[in-house]
Amino acid sequence: MGTLTALADEVRALDGSRVLLIGGGRRAQAVSPLGSLLAAEFSGPAMHTPVEVTEKALAVLREHDVDCLVAVGGGSAIGLAKALALRTDLPQVVVPTTYAGSEATPVLGQTADGRKTTLRSAAVLPETIVYDVGLTLDLPVGMSVTSGINAMAHAVEALYSPDANPVTDLLALDAIRRLADALPKINADPKDPAARSNALQAAWLAGTCLSTVRMGLHHKLCHALGGSFGLPHAETHTVVLPHVMATQSPEAMARVALALGVSDAATGVYDLVVQLGGPTDLRDLGLAESDIDSVDADPGVRALLREAWSGTRPQQHR
Ligand code: NAD
Predict the structure, then answer these.
(1) Does residue 234 have its Cβ closer than 6 Å to ligand 1?
(2) pTM, to two decimals
(3) How does DSSP classify residue 106?
(4) Mutation test residue for ligand 1: of 233, 235, 285, the one with most atoms within 8 Å of CB
(5) Residues facing 117 on adjacent strands
(6) pLDDT in tens, 147-170
(7) Cβ(228)–Cβ(166) under 8 Å?
(8) What is the structure's pLDDT at 318?
């Protein structure tokens, strides 16, 4: 708590003296800690990092002779900083305020003409992360739940990744345990600093999994749904995850179930989302049933998407 006061020192440590501050409402909290280092602000990051927004921010950056990027916010603010770093090679200090985990990854998803493409490059990995639990205390419960399940999705898919290794397994299971513990506590008391801190640590662990091993079907589907139909990122992850889990390796799912303290991982995550008041169906997120036919997928995956569309509880592991 209060670590934002270190922001100016972190910028100077990267030889920065003219900062572009990126983010939504939380960005205001960084203005005073940055003091005279602040050269310009950009308040309009958008989900899925549209290239036209990046172009606008790039113009501001050039106009103000910026030499360091500071992003305060969720995956959208951090995604914009990454997109700018890719184009300018400027250093980034990022201050995450959700549990998306983007701060810990060299991954950038960008959208152009309704298509989302993802790249992996050391050029987009933020140089410095500042975690300040204080900035997360106001994250609405609904966003906390969906963002937390977004983090859980990184950890779950790491366990059955073709690149999985004993270290990422440990990180993933620790992230899942922390989220299962923290999310109900945040739901009961959104300003519980210990639960918030636990969730932020889980976000870093899960982001590190995403950074290290390839993700699978779940991320592919959410990426397609977000890019093509503009569905909200964290909410889409929350709805789709239990349905994908019901189709995955029983060994990996048994480990997830143990970490969650339930008998079946897929229904365990679904029930947790219901208990926390989160979304359970793609229909409510604005997807038309006919849109499912245009997703590039085989009949089994389309059936899974139909289940996620209507929001039925997934079958026990099959
Ligand atoms: P977001 O950044 O779009 O934030 C959602 C909303 O919550 C915004 O309106 C934001 O202003 C608000 N908000 C953020 N923090 C808040 C706080 N503490 N209190 C109150 N309001 C707050 O949502 P997100 O789910 O964090 O990020 C989604 C984006 O991140 C997507 O574009 C996704 O593709 C990307 N992402 C990338 C990676 C990666 O590794 N590249 C990983 C996860 C997500």
Answers:
(1) yes
(2) 0.96
(3) S
(4) 233
(5) 110
(6) 999 999 999 999 999 999 999 999
(7) no
(8) 46
Ligand 1 in contact with 23 (CB < 6 A)?
Answer: no
Note whether 86 and 109 are within 8 A (CB).
Answer: no
Beta carbon of 210 within 6 Å of any ligand 1 atom: yes
The whole-number average pLDDT for the span 179-200 is 98
Amino acid at the residue 161: S
Regarding the beta carbon of 267 and ligand 1, being less than 6 Å apart is answered no
User: Which tens digits make up the pLDDT trace of 245-278?
Assistant: 999 999 999 999 999 999 999 999 999 999 999 9
250 alpha carbon – ligand 1 mean position (Å) = 31
% of the chain with per-residue pLDDT over 90: 94
Q: Report the separation in Å between the CA atom of 79 and the middle of ligand 1, taken as the mean of its atom positions.
A: 9
Torsion angle defined by CA atoms of residues 58, 136, 198 and 222, in that order, rounded to the nearest 10 degrees = -50
Nearest-angstrom CA–CA distance, 124 and 109: 11
